[in-house]
Prior knowledge:
It is built from three helices and no strands. It is mainly alpha-helical. The radius of gyration is 17 Å and the shape is elongated.
Amino acid sequence: xxxxxxxxxxxxxxCQFWRVCLLGxxxxxxxxxxxxxxxxxxxxxxxxxxxxxxxxxxxxxxEGKSDQLKGAVREKVGKIKKLFNQ
Length: 86
């Protein structure tokens, strides 16, 4: 019996790849991880901001803007790290 979930072999392997890369695997440089996590924060913030705007929840809207800023800063940190690693 395989421990592979029923979501499909390709999807399972893609999920395993991202889990290794984002959770401390040695396959990615620190700068790349920062850029990916920054992009994820920006996307998460955008979703929060839009949902907060649609629902009238100002706190959620502000939290979304904050997450977007945090993501932008993290992406810049990743770009700066890449400059110094070369």
